[in-house]
Specification:
alpha+beta, five-stranded antiparallel beta sheet
């Protein structure tokens, strides 16, 4: 086999290999993307009780974009449903902490009670405010079951500000920002309940 023929065979094999790799990538890309989305969904949705929804909330985004509230900004929202009925809303909120912005995911059930919250992103001080991102987070769990009226407006503050909540030790500014962000979201939910749930409010 002369040199030209050898090079031709190698080029042909390389082309076949490249084509095979491309076809495999094309065939597996949707599955990989689906699995990555499922991982992302599990990470985001772990603040919702597993038996509280049977849809894919991330596939039901709400029309929320940079909604300015008293102490926070709503960046996005998602609706969870069970048996076709709205069960909860997830609100992506941004507040200003000690080190910069803190992104929160706040889950509110259809009965207006907080079902969970978590920090998605932050720039807080390691060992202090950065503890907001710890999982599980006993401090954030202390808000579960609370609502706009429980406690009342005055109670949605740190104890040092005459409110009802403790702070993360050594992280007053972080704690205050998160409490204000959760309170803002609960108020927004209360004021826009029909829009967020997509059905008439139930008394």
């Amino acid at each position: 086999m002369n040199r030209a023929m050898s090079l031709g065979v190698l080029a042909l094999l390389a082309a076949i290999g490249a084509a095979g790799t491309f076809l495999v990538q094309q065939a597996t890309a949707p599955r990989i993307e689906q699995e990555q989305r499922a991982i992302q969904a599990r990470s985001l949705l772990d603040i919702l009780p597993l038996d509280s929804y049977d849809n894919q909330p991330l596939d039901q985004p709400l029309t929320l974009t940079n909604v300015q509230l008293g102490h926070s900004t709503l960046l996005a929202g998602y609706r969870a449903t069970r048996n076709g009925q709205p069960s909860a809303v997830l609100l992506h909120s941004r507040v200003s902490g000690y080190g910069g912005s803190i992104d929160l995911l706040i889950g509110i059930a259809a009965d207006s009670k907080l079902v969970g919250s978590k920090a998605l992103r932050h720039s807080e001080t390691p060992g202090l405010g950065a503890r907001i991102a710890e999982r599980p987070n006993a401090w954030l769990q202390g808000f579960i079951g609370k609502s706009l009226g429980d406690p009342g407006d005055a109670g949605w503050a740190l104890k040092k500000d005459d409110g009802q909540f403790d702070q993360i030790a050594g992280a007053t500014i972080t704690s205050r920002a998160v409490i204000e962000g959760i309170h803002d979201s609960l108020r927004y939910f209360d004021e826009h309940r029909e829009q967020l749930l997509g059905s008439p409010a139930h008394e």
